[in-house]
């Protein structure tokens, strides 16, 4: 499987050396001292009035079909949608071992994966594929559904998310800005989620220890659903900002991490996808 999703493990600083020109003379040669450009504060990624779908695979490492036809189907979905959608493997209750993904979430006692399974209309078997919280009839349909979502008419896009990302050792800070394109009324939340690729674990249907693709690792502060940024009426053109931060567990590999931002609309006890952003 090709790997083109950007990762957030490393920043590269570019240093520029100013070389002084010297003249031939009896005087001691003088050179311009070396200077280094200051590190710029990261800026918000650009807002785009488009739908960024969320696509997940309900799976489990003890699920045989998840490791056979479901394994191939998931890699096909990733290859088709990488860079255009926020994707993750959801190791929720059933057909999972507590020694792997369940207890490896950043907050196992408040499992994001189990909350997502309970929030979406779970079909009771695995593997299943969901686009924007709605079960797709097949893996092929998942790609079609996601692409149809991306192609949604611009006028129907209500809100977008942009973010800036900072590392300080093992601490990550994600500043999120949401922007409204239409007048909205209701309860809206924004959450930031961490996903790790190439997680080593066993898988029924595969031989030995294998690389699991895009495993959900949990919420970056704010509980499962993040923080409420609208409660009531809000006007087109408004922006809202919120900062999220957490310390990354040492067991996670930074170079394989990505983030996803999801905007939710709460209706009753359920949370519905509104839009997303991802690196």
What does this structure look like?
- It is a single chain.
- The chain is mainly β and 279 residues long.
- Helices cover 12% and strands 35% of the residues.
- Strands 7, 10, 11, 13 and 14 form a five-stranded antiparallel beta sheet that branches.
- α1 runs parallel beside α3.
- The protein is globular and about 55 Å long.
- The N terminus is likely disordered.
Name some characteristics of this structure.
279 residues, mainly beta, five-stranded antiparallel beta sheet, four-stranded mixed beta sheet, 3 helices, 14 strands, globular, disordered N terminus
Topology overview:
Elements: E1 54-58, H1 69-81, E2 86-90, H2 112-119, E3 128-131, E4 134-135, H3 139-150, E5 159-168, E6 171-180, E7 184-196, E8 199-202, E9 209-212, E10 215-219, E11 227-234, E12 239-247, E13 257-267, E14 270-278
Parallel strand pairs: 1-2
Antiparallel strand pairs: 1-3, 3-4, 5-6, 6-12, 7-10, 7-11, 7-13, 8-9, 13-14
Low-confidence stretches: 1-39
Beginning-to-end CA distance, first to last residue: 18 Å
Q: What is the overall number of helices?
A: 3
Report the structural category: mainly beta
Q: Note the beta-strand portion.
A: 35-45%
Helix content: 10-25%
Q: Kindly state the mean pLDDT as a whole number?
A: 85
Order of helices and strands: EHEHEEHEEEEEEEEEE
Number of strands: 14
Radius of gyration: 22 Å
Oligomeric assembly: single chain
Largest sheet: 5 strands, antiparallel
Choose one word for the global shape.
globular
